Amino acid sequence: xxxxxxxxxxxxxxxxxxxxxxxxxxxxREVADARLDNLMVAAILKGSFxxxxxxxxxxxxxxxxxxxxxxxxxxxxxARASSGQVxxxxxxxxxxxxxxxxxxxxxxxxxxxxxxxxxxIAARGARAIKTCxxxxxxxxxxxxxxxxxxxxxxxxxxxVGYGMDVAHRYRELPFVGRVVHE
Length: 182
Ligand code: IMP
Ligand code: MG
Known about the structure:
Blueprint: E1 11-15, H1 17-33, E2 39-45, H2 49-61, E3 67-74, E4 87-90, E5 100-108, H3 112-123, E6 128-136, E7 149-153, E8 159-160, E9 176-179
Parallel strand pairs: 2-3, 2-5, 5-6, 6-7
Antiparallel strand pairs: 1-9, 3-4, 8-9
Helix pairs in contact: 1-2
Magnesium ion (MG) binds at residues 44, 47-48, 105-106, 113.
């Protein structure tokens, strides 16, 4: 499929499907090199569902067989600016006690969502916790947290696609882009 041809004029491509696939392969090898036995992937929904789906297949490609679970967290609601409050909309099913957990999220922005997830999973007795994000907006950080694995640094722009939305739209796009006109 030609990504450009399928792009409506209102969207500008920031990270192509090819660039994303290449970085996921590289990140999977980094994760494998860390030799985290008994690995569990905890994907933060909704935004990370496409990223997590591709990442776990990249992990399979480097010989890993993680268990996978999901947690739905909300800090954004319908607004584009973070409210600062993180809440659990749906919790994980699996027990993280004694496990090596890889938390997967789409965007590291203020850092509140990832810090909340990390603190929660630590409090539940995980052995070691690593964090993996598709995009890091470093300039927006409000709490001190650095990702262990990051596909791309991202400028301070609101991005959509590859699982990420604005008002529930654009999640289906195979690339990360920005909305130019609305
Ligand atoms: P934080 O808690 O401020 O770090 O926000 C992280 C969450 O906000 C991510 O899990 C995303 O779901 C969402 N988010 C931040 N920036 C964007 C964006 O540019 N597009 C879509 N979602 C975003
Ligand atoms: Mg999210």
